[in-house]
Amino acid sequence: GAGVSQSPSNKVTEKGKDVELRCDPISGHTALYWYRQSLGQGLEFLIYFQGNSAPDKSGLPSDRFSAERTGGSVSTLTIQRTQQEDSAVYLCASSPRALPREQYFGPGTRLTVT
Amino acid sequence: AQSVAQPEDQVNVAEGNPLTVKCTYSVSGNPYLFWYVQYPNRGLQFLLKYITGDNLVKGSYGFEAEFNKSQTSFHLKKPSALVSDSALYFCAVSLYTGNQFYFGTGTSLTVIP
After folding, report:
1. Three-class DSSP category at B36
2. What is the CATH number of the domain that holds A55?
3. 20 to 30 Å CA-CA from B66: which of A9, A42, A73, B72?
4. CB contact under 8 A, A100 and B105
């Protein structure tokens, strides 16, 4: 079956512009995660959605970052007024409800802020 | 606070030799433990997990990992390395009751022909 997909695969934007990154999880997976991976760094947790519950936003680095998940499926991560330090690969993962929740990752979106 | 440590940024091993990629964790509770692999310009792929039961778990591509509760470690191993195993490896921990996954900083494995 289809895996997690993300779009765009690459995004170059100017400092100060807003960007939207999209994630399509595996069908039937109720949990969805966003991570940020900077060069030479591990994965930084950003936000977590589980079904219709309120999302866990504890990892969002600033109020310029927001995410939504419509209909329990597709998710959009929005970064407003992008800064150069936002440049990174943004990874999305989904997992089934049942424990243990191993995650299935998308290929990522490489964001470059110039 | 929960954390995962991968003490080696880089591991080099000759093709055909056994390999070990180290991982230790610190959690307040019972952990689920995972290994993921990331090939260049790709997302992370799930390799294996420890939930409960046998301390030695087997996963994809001939990899295995040993859970050691007393040492709070979950080292990844393979008896005979292949050049195609060269990649970035991440250890992760999750709690029975938690939502978050905690990832290590990754270990770059290079298998030398």
Report:
1. strand
2. 2.60.40.10
3. A42
4. no
Integer Cα distance of A110 and A88 in angstroms: 6
Contacts of A10 in chain B (CB under 8 A): none
Given an 8 Å threshold on Cβ–Cβ distance, is B105 in contact with A42?
yes
Domain count, chain A: 1
Read off the amino acid at residue B16.
G
Using one digit for the tens of pLDDT, what is the confidence trace for B75-112? 999 999 999 999 999 999 987 666 778 899 999 999 99
Fold of B3-105: Immunoglobulin-like (2.60.40)
Q: Would you call A56 an interface residue with chain B, using a CB distance cutoff of 8 Å?
A: yes
Each residue of B17-48: pLDDT tens digit? 999 999 999 988 888 999 999 988 778 999 99
Structure tokens given for A21: 């990154």
Give yes or no for a cis peptide into A100 (omega within 30° of 0): yes
Q: Tell me the Cα Rg of chain A.
A: 13
Give backbone dihedrals phi and psi of B60, rounded to 5 degrees, phi first. Answer: -75, 155
Residue A113 lies in a domain: no
Find chain B residues with C-beta within 8 A of A102's C-beta. Answer: 34, 46, 49
Q: Give the confidence band of A23 by pLDDT, cuts at 50, 70, 90.
A: very high
- Is residue B4 within 8 Å of residue B101, measured between CB atoms? no
User: Torsions phi, psi of A4, nearest 5?
Assistant: -75, 130
